[in-house]
Inverse folding.
DNA sequence: AAGCAGATCAACCGCCCACCC
DNA sequence: GGGGTGGGCGGTTGATCTGCT
């Protein structure tokens, strides 16, 4: 048997709050302060659930709340904290005066997540998709599709059927939205029609790769379609390479050791502890938050 | 101008946990 | 120690807004 409902849901008002209801809450809090929310509807003369009253106060009526747009500094802070502690919205909101967990959560879901995806960054791990895919292959025991030191090509697509090309020559940026991952995003259709030089001209990292390729492959007649690798996340692409030519050429030029599977990986607990350590170094104010595992 | 799709955000839901008796 | 309760939390929903065709 579950917990009984906090109120008679059939007989309480739901939906948007009116100015009159807001005024009642404000008047009640001004007189009595914040206390037992289950008694607030009765004492304030509201036909609302106590929980709903608390939510209205904490997310909208509190006088210390900001109602303007998020600043770039706040955005950076959310990104850094989300990277470190994940979707613990209330903890993140505590570092942003005047913002609620609901504000932060909505901002993340509607703006920041999409921004990262469009930049070719996985919003869960905060790593470039290429790295995530490579690690996916490592975890699942699949061969790394193209483990070169200089460039990686994946024909993984996002929801918009965009294709990502990554160079891993750049180091991990500190501020995700202000640095260049050397990531180019094309639709599959577009890329298949572009010549190598057309694409590489947009990015110095790709230009440098072009100069390392055999002369026959770096002519404008070669298209990127020749170099697209199989998608490691799909069954058809798992063990198959479409662009074996480039893969072989690059691997010959820059042989790397194929990473082995799980034995070399840290344990889950080690990973969590390392993340917390990093979080506390980056955000000393969180030192007063007790994290129990 | 109308209809549609996507974006936004306030509000709700249900689970969890700390506290109190 | 155990059950009941209030409050906090993250995830989800749905009404409204906005922009595009």
């Amino acid at each position: 048997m579950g917990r009984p409902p906090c109120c008679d849901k059939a007989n309480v008002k739901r939906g948007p709050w009116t100015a009159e209801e807001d005024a009642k809450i404000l008047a009640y809090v001004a007189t009595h302060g914040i206390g037992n929310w289950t008694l607030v509807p009765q004492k304030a003369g509201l036909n609302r659930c106590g929980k709903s009253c608390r939510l209205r106060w904490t997310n909208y009526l509190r006088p210390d709340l900001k109602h303007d747009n998020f600043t770039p500094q706040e955005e950076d802070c959310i990104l850094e904290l989300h990277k470190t502690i994940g979707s613990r919205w209330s903890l993140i909101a505590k570092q942003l005066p005047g913002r609620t967990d609901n504000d932060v959560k909505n901002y993340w879901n509607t703006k920041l997540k999409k921004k990262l995806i469009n930049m070719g960054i996985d919003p869960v791990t905060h790593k470039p998709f290429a790295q995530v895919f490579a690690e996916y292959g490592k975890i699942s025991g699949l061969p790394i599709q193209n483990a070169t030191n200089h460039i990686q090509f994946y024909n993984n697509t996002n929801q918009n059927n965009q294709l990502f090309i990554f160079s891993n020559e750049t180091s991990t940026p500190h501020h995700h939205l202000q640095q260049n991952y050397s990531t180019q995003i094309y639709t599959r259709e577009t890329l298949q029609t572009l010549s190598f030089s057309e694409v590489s001209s947009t990015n110095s990292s790709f230009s440098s790769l072009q100069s390392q390729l055999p002369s026959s492959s770096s002519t404008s007649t070669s298209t990127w379609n020749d170099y697209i690798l199989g998608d490691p996340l799909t069954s058809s692409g798992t063990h198959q390479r479409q662009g074996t030519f480039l893969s072989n050429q690059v691997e010959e030029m820059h042989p790397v050791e194929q990473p082995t599977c799980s034995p070399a990986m840290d344990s889950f607990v080690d990973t969590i502890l390392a993340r917390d350590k990093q979080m506390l170094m980056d955000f000393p104010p969180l030192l007063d938050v007790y994290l129990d595992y």
In short: The radius of gyration of chain A is 26 Å. Residues 2-3, 14-17, 49, 51-52, 55-56, 59-60, 102-103, 106-107, 109-111 of chain A lie near DNA strand B (CB under 10 Å from a C1').
